[in-house]
Amino acid sequence: MPPIRTPSFTRRELLTAVGSATALSATNVAGSSETSVQEATLHVRVYPGPVSVFTWLRNGWSHFVSGWFDVHRDAMAAVETALERIATYAEANSSLDHVETSVEACDPVDFSLVTPDSFSLFSQEALLDAFHEEVHDRQVNMGSTCHLLLWWNALNYDLGYGGTRAPNTHVGALEGEDSQTIANLGATEAWDSRAVTRNIAIHETLHTFLSPDVVEEVVDSRCDHNLGTAVRVDEDTLEVSPMATAYAGPDEYGGGTRWHGTGCYDHDSFAHHDGYEDAENWEYTTELSDATLEATTLYIERYLA
Questions:
Q1: Percent of the chain beyond pLDDT 90?
Q2: Which of 63, 144, 178, 290 could form a disulfide with 59 if both were Cys (CB 3.0 to 4.6 A apart)?
Q3: Is the peptide bond before 3 cis (omega within 30 degrees of 0)?
């Protein structure tokens, strides 16, 4: 497995040194130096979708009226914490002076998004296209935002645990277009656990803040799932980070998560993978791997600052 390239000095230290030298020679007529401030914002809008009747019964009437249930709030909180961690890392380890995070709770999206005469409920592509239209109809397309739909369809194999719309796969990839992504909480809640729900919400969101070029700089692979880690915390337990969720185990039913992901992955290219032999227990941490932090920071610098 190729090691993550870690410079002897952080990029912030190198850039600060270069900036200091430049400032000494680049002064204005009055003798004062001019400095520029590098800033960026990680902006995510979160939309809850319909939930199962069982979920209605487990929550109070106020949740039913608002459309925001505990599972939605847990998923959104996990995303918010992950973005704050990225912002803190980026400010300490890059040319960025300030990284703002904004995670907004939005009005629900209901089943009217799905119309039988236009597409199948089980088509991931069509559902993402419909969500794209919903964002435009609400007139909230900002050109620099990730829109996350928390959907509920445990039996939707085509959607799986989620997906991101192409060709606007990444925030800022298309001028004037946001990104849309879906986390299938119905699948994670029905087949796995709340811990997997949190990780998949983070996982699908971060897809929109990663691109093959920045991933390759960190792990010598263009697949962002390889930024994840699977760390053996005892002889029969593996702890899996968000970007590796659904990809850390064997490609079979019940290999880690109940269902294995269908996207790219290579355990030998993971930022860290201790192997799944004899693993009987799988734990899921919302802590981001160092590789994920570095790759998202590169993306912010390159495309969002």
A1: 76
A2: 63
A3: no
